[in-house]
Every structure is written in C-alpha cells, then in structure tokens.
Design goal:
PGBD-like_sf, PGBDSf, mainly alpha, single chain, 3 domains, 11 helices, 188 residues, 0% strand, Cell_Wall_Dynamics_Protein
Length: 188
Amino acid sequence: MADQCAIDGGVALFSLVYGKRMGNGPPETQDGWRYRGRGVLQTTGRASYAHFGAQCHVDFEGQPDLVVDPAHALKPALLEWNARHLNVAADNNDIEAITHGINGGLIGLTQRRAWFAKIWPFVIGAAPVEHATEWKVQSALVAAGYDPGSPDGVVGPATRLAILAFRAARGLAATPQITPDLVHALGL
C-alpha cells in the first residue's frame, strides 16, 4: 500500500479505509478519497458532505472541494460547532469536551492541551506559558526525575500523579495541587 500511496497520493488508501463507511460507496468508487476529512473541522464522509451541504445550501456532495473553498469553509464548521453546543465548553476552556464533541473521542487531547497552553496567553495578553508556575513546576518535576508529561502549563492527570509521587518521596502532604510547600520543595 505504501508504494501505491507514492503513486497515487493516497487515493487508494483513503478509498479503502473510508470505503463503505460514513455514506461512502465501496473502495472502487473512490468516495473515501473524494469525501476525506477536509475543512476547518475535518468534514468526513459522503453523508457529512451531503448533510452540511443541505444545511448550508452549498453542493458539497457534488463538488467536494467547496468544503475548503474560502467562501464556504466556515459554514460546515460553524454548523457542527453549534449543533454540538460547544460554546459553553469553549467559554470554560474545556478542551476535552470540545475534542469529544468534534472527534467523538479523545485522540490528540494531550497535544491540543499543549497547543492551547501555548496559544492562550497570547489570546488574553498574558505572559507565555513558560512563565507560568504550572509550567515551572512541571519542568522541575522532570528535572527531579518525575514524569508529568511534557511541560505544557496544564495540570492534568500525569502532572497530578507526578506531584503526588514527589510529595510522598519528600514527606509532604498528599495533595495533587500546586501549593507553596511544593513550590518551595522544588526550589522554585
């Protein structure tokens, strides 16, 4: 299949993987390629192209490239966003709810959180994430031999576990929060 991708740019692979799914026909129709994930929120599958096309009054099914056309690209994305009621999650910076709402699962959540942590300070005019106490604690935990994941300024499950392990080794109170005694013990 790798050789075939080099020859046809992935047409056969997409046609096979997405064939007979999401409203696509069998691989020989090349619907998997034609209706591959594209656009702002990755509209995927013939059924989605038809659905959003009908909602937007744009023939995405008949002309799939229109889903990335600047004149129409935001239309299916905004419809999907609104249909899944994601404004509340966005207002609360709930990346997990947004990821689940758009993708139906949580694949890529860690990377999204890391990107959000880097971008959000610029959005609100704050200092870069590397200046945040959370990022400094994560970096200090890494240096001390504990694994909070890649420092990203977001205190998630891995960071909380690393904090608890560090606290236990130092005889500190067993709490996963960043507190003054933790900051002091880490030498920050």
